[in-house]
Design a protein that fits this description.
By secondary structure, the protein is mostly helical. 65% of the residues lie in helices and 0% in strands. It has helices at 2-20, 31-59, 70-77, 85-91, 102-112, 117-131, 150-157, 164-189, 196-222, 227-253, 274-286.
């Protein structure tokens, strides 16, 4: 009977150790692992800043004024009767990409005359093929308007915002790409020492913000005021992701908190009764919330 209880206790302790052995903290990592993780987080952070700069440069001027504004976001997704995306671009941020200044007037006149296909083939396509499709091609950058054929050009030559097929194309790219990035950042972030509830909420926030951001693109196409949600959700995703990166790097190199007592590190001393020992082991085995 005693041997059976002894084996049962060992089995329970062994199973508890297996369940908790996967839980690590930054202080348990080797220097090589810390260097690798830090390089990844820094590269992702720089990449995100570059993405913001790219978004700023490609979305400004939609309202005819320099700088990114809420009107630019509205025009991009909903459109404007006064501005077309192509017209705003060649008068603003993309003006320097045209080889000849006179080409700007040719394109603007074509837009004002209704953007017909015969004139496109004769006068507009040669300009775009020479100066624009280096970037505005699905093979190069699928998130930018496709200027390689008439159907793609008319999407930005008329007053309406981005088309529904374009939104589907860009949103599925963002969902796959950003979800992977957030997963790996969160995978490192859960190694931080902090309140378990706070940690779980912080891990979920950027994913929720990403979903709201992409969903709001489609809503803004019909409800322009929803552009405020686009900006707010995008900012929330960026701030929460940046916070995870900074906290992870800080705890990886500079934080030295008290070591957390996890079940496979519990020491059963002679000062505790056997009943007390059993109670501690059972509680630590059953309550996984003790392990953040």
């Amino acid at each position: 009977m005693g041997e059976s209880n002894y084996r049962s206790g060992n089995d329970r302790r062994s199973l508890s150790d297996k369940r908790t052995s996967a839980y690590r903290r930054f202080r348990n990592l080797s220097i090589s692992e810390k260097i690798l993780n830090t390089c990844f987080l820094v590269a992702i952070g720089i990449g995100y800043l570059v993405a913001l700069a790219h978004m700023y440069s490609t979305h400004q001027w939609h309202d005819g004024r320099p700088g990114l504004s809420i009107d630019d976001v509205m025009i991009n997704y909903h459109g404007s009767p006064e501005q077309t995306r192509l017209g705003s671009a060649i008068k603003g941020v993309m003006a320097s990409n045209l080889k000849y200044k006179s080409d700007q007037d040719v394109i603007l006149e074509w837009i004002q005359n209704g953007a017909a296909e015969p004139e496109y083939n004769d006068h507009i396509a040669p300009i775009l093929n020479r100066d624009c499709i280096v970037c505005h091609s699905p093979a190069v950058n699928p998130s930018l308007p496709n200027l390689t054929h008439y159907a793609g050009v008319t999407e930005v030559a008329h007053a309406g915002g981005v088309s529904f097929p374009s939104l589907l194309r860009v949103s599925h790219i963002h969902l796959f790409g950003i979800a992977f990035v957030l997963f790996f950042i969160g995978k490192l972030f859960i190694l931080c020492d902090m309140n378990v509830t706070v940690k779980r909420v912080l891990v979920m926030i950027p994913f929720a913000a990403m979903l709201v951001d992409i969903l709001s693109w489609f809503i803004t196409k019909d409800v322009p005021k929803f552009a405020y949600v686009v900006v707010a959700s995008g900012a929330l995703m960026g701030v929460s992701m940046g916070l995870q990166i900074l906290v992870s790097i800080y705890q990886m190199w500079f934080y030295s908190g008290d070591k957390i007592l996890i079940p496979n590190e519990i020491k059963f001393t002679t000062r505790l009764s056997k009943l007390r020992q059993k109670a501690i082991l059972n509680r630590s085995f059953e309550d996984t919330s003790l392990i953040p």
